[in-house]
């Protein structure tokens, strides 16, 4: 005894409509095809499923028993389908991600919005930390993947660069530097500079370029986060050197920015554990983050 899914679907539709013509319309086939498929099923399973009474298909008791069994199977298949979608959407109960503070505003919000278009039901566990802490969390398995700066040690991890962004000078709206297309070191000679801490990768590149040029800046304030640099610059405490990802997000608050002429840049790397496989949701998160960074790369990429 053999039968096909097409035959089963045809039987189910005729059973529900009690009409070959109505079943044909629902299945988008001809009535002759419905009749032939149904006859083939009855011959295969050796059961009479319908009595042809005038224009109606009268169900037999055997047809009712078969229909109830098919309905139970359909419920099971629907449940299986939901489980498959859950596995495809999230190979784990939630996706555990992290990123540094510079991307914790508009960039991470845009990333989440993009991610939700494909995985609306996948929970997110989001950590905003410094690069070294995020690295340790990925190594320990607390996070699946994280976006970090380049000062983090990547040994034992897999990683790839998402963006390399040109540093910007930041200052309040109306500042004289706003008249420039880009800011040279000489333009900052008399300014109180707000800079990132000395161990930051971009700060190291800044100091190396200054030493190479035989120049120096008056660093009045040091802080670990570009967001703090921008807030202090906006408040008038000096001219900051910051990640454009943070500066662009604060433009509406009155912060102005111009790119540095010197090749000082901020790196963004995606890291994940060296041996643990990444779910499809995790891979898509990385794609979404890259997409959210794309406008910055277009404007400030190096």
From TrEMBL:
One of its GO terms (biological process) is positive regulation of gene expression. Residues 3-60 form the HTH lysR-type domain. InterPro entries: LysR_HTH_N, LysR_subst-bd, WH-like_DNA-bd_sf, WH_DNA-bd_sf. It holds the Pfam family HTH_1. One of its GO terms (molecular function) is sequence-specific DNA binding. Keywords: DNA-binding, Transcription, Transcription regulation. PROSITE patterns: HTH_LYSR. The keyword Transcription applies. The keyword S-adenosyl-L-methionine does not apply. PANTHER family: TRANSCRIPTIONAL ACTIVATOR PROTEIN LYSR. Belongs to the LysR transcriptional regulatory family. This is Bacterial regulatory helix-turn-helix protein, LysR family protein 48.
């Amino acid at each position: 005894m053999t039968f096909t899914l097409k035959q089963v679907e045809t039987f189910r539709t005729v059973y529900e409509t009690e009409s070959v013509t109505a079943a044909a319309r629902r299945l988008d086939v001809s009535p002759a095809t419905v009749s032939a498929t149904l006859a083939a099923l009855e011959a295969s399973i050796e059961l009479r499923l319908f009595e042809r009474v005038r224009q109606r298909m009268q169900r037999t008791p055997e047809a009712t028993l078969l229909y109830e069994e098919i309905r139970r199977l359909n419920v099971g298949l629907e449940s299986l389908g939901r489980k498959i979608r859950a596995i495809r959407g999230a190979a784990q109960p939630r996706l555990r991600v992290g990123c540094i503070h510079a991307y914790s505003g508009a960039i991470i919000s845009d990333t989440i919005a993009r991610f939700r278009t494909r995985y609306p039901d996948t929970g997110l566990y989001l950590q905003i930390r410094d690069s070294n802490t995020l690295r340790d969390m990925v190594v320990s398995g607390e996070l699946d993947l994280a976006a970090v700066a380049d000062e983090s040690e990547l040994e034992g991890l897999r990683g790839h660069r998402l963006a390399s962004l040109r540093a910007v000078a930041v200052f309040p709206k109306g500042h004289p530097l706003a008249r420039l297309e880009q800011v040279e070191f000489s333009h900052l000679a008399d300014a109180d500079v707000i800079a990132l801490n000395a161990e930051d990768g971009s700060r190291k590149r800044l100091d190396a370029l200054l030493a190479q040029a035989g120049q120096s800046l008056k660093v009045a304030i040091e802080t670990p986060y570009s967001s703090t640099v921008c807030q202090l610059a906006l408040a008038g405490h000096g001219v900051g050197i910051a990640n454009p990802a943070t500066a662009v997000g604060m433009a509406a608050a009155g912060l102005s920015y111009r790119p540095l002429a010197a090749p000082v840049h901020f790196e963004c790397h995606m890291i994940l554990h060296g041996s643990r496989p990444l779910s499809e949701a995790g891979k898509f998160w990385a794609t979404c983050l890259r997409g959210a960074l794309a406008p910055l790369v277009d404007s400030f990429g190096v």
